[in-house]
Amino acid sequence: MTQGIHGTVADGFEPVREEFAAFVAGELPDYEGQLCAYVHGRKVVDLWAGDGCEADSLHGVFSSTKGAAYLVVALLVQEGTLEPDRKVTYCWPEFGAEGKGTLTLRDLLSHRAGVVGLDAGFTGAELADDRAIAEPLADQRPFWRPGTAFGYHAFVIGALVGEVVRRATGRTLQEVYEERIRAPYGLDFHLGLPEELEPRYRSVQPMAPTPEQQAVLDATPTGPHTLASIAFNTHVPGAGELVDYPNSRAVRASGPASAGGVASARGLAGMYAAAISEIDERPPLLKPDTIAEVGQIHSTGYDLVARFHKSFGLGFQAISDYVYPFLGAGSFGHSGAGGSQAFADPRCGLAYGYTRRRFAYPGGAAPENDRLVHAVHRAALGSAQ
């Protein structure tokens, strides 16, 4: 075992352990994190590091939660319960207010709706409740004409698609996820953390930027009424800091589908492995046509909220376009603000999950994922030869 690194790797994946150890050696002494990967349904990487961090420790994974929400939608589309090109108002008539009546579920999933938040914003308590998020958004005037552009619906997309799921099935998105995905596979990826699992939760620690990094953060232009501030609800005084969002028991208990999930790296990677691969003689959750559709790019170009180039598939981030271009076309997944990353590369059968406890600089997928994903992907390709 490499000093300070726990867990196992399959034959041929030893370079992944070495890369993980090299990264951890350069981190702060209190680093805690986990890395897990599957190839064609076989667990090939299962590593963790840090005092207090165990293989089954649970972390707030912020927007990596969205991957679970989109997988629920993909299953319902696959079986015909939901139709991507049907108008949202078919299930949710009230959503048609303020010019949103022509919007389809496909538009909504690809971040083209234009309702990234509320003019008045949400309270902290409301952000812990998907129904409290969704209901007022039905009356919100879009911030751009629906369908003409796209922008990241950071805090609300899970609630919006969750309301469509609830109205179509009579079940909450969280209930469908628990019954169809999490429980059958025993995944440590929870949209609603049971009280008895609370001792395994490791609270998110705040970002610890270097002086140079802090100077960059301080110099980043911000404003209280920008699309980004509305999308991340920072225009509301007293609504709470993003870093503390999953540290709220109310958030962990209800599991808001945009950013309230709690998971281990095993849980993240295991979910994507189940989506694309046979596991324990269970067939993949998604059929090949569905895998192709969710990974197909639906929105690409300048993201009006993020203010840089991004690409989305059917909900999922199209990460082989703008994050890890060496991955196979059609790779799909989602990162989280605190540093987590999770995805599937169906072309080589790879499923990847990473968590860390301390909020990463500068937010989004932690930069160490660049080297870790490279190492895992190289090993996965080598194992297939």
What is the number of strand segments?
11
Question: What structural class is derived from the secondary structure elements?
Answer: alpha+beta
Radius of gyration: 20 Å
Report the order of strands and helices: EHEEEHHHHHEHHHEHHEEHEEEH
Largest sheet: 6 strands, antiparallel
Low-confidence stretches: none
Strand order of the biggest β-sheet: 1-3-2-11-10-9
Mean pLDDT: 96
Distance between the termini: 26 Å
The percent range for helix content is 25-40%
Shape: globular
Specify the oligomeric state. single chain
Strand residue percentage? 5-15%
- Tally of helical runs: 13
Write up this protein.
With 385 residues, the chain is α+β, with helices and mostly antiparallel strands. The protein is 32% helix and 13% strand. It has 13 helices and 11 strands. It has helices at 14-25, 65-78, 105-109, 130-137, 157-169, 173-185, 211-219, 227-231, 249-254, 265-276, 288-295, 319-322, 368-383, and strands at residues 5-9, 33-39, 42-49, 59-60, 189-190, 262-263, 299-302, 309-312, 332-335, 341-345, 350-356. A 6-stranded antiparallel beta sheet has the order 1-3-2-11-10-9, sandwiched between helices. Strands 4-6-5 form a 3-stranded antiparallel beta sheet. Strands 7-8 form a two-stranded antiparallel sheet. α1 packs antiparallel against α13, α2 (65-78) crosses α6 (173-185) and α4 packs across α5 (157-169). The longest helix is centred in the last third of the chain and has 16 residues, at 368-383. It is globular and about 60 Å long. The relative contact order is 0.19. The mean pLDDT is 96.
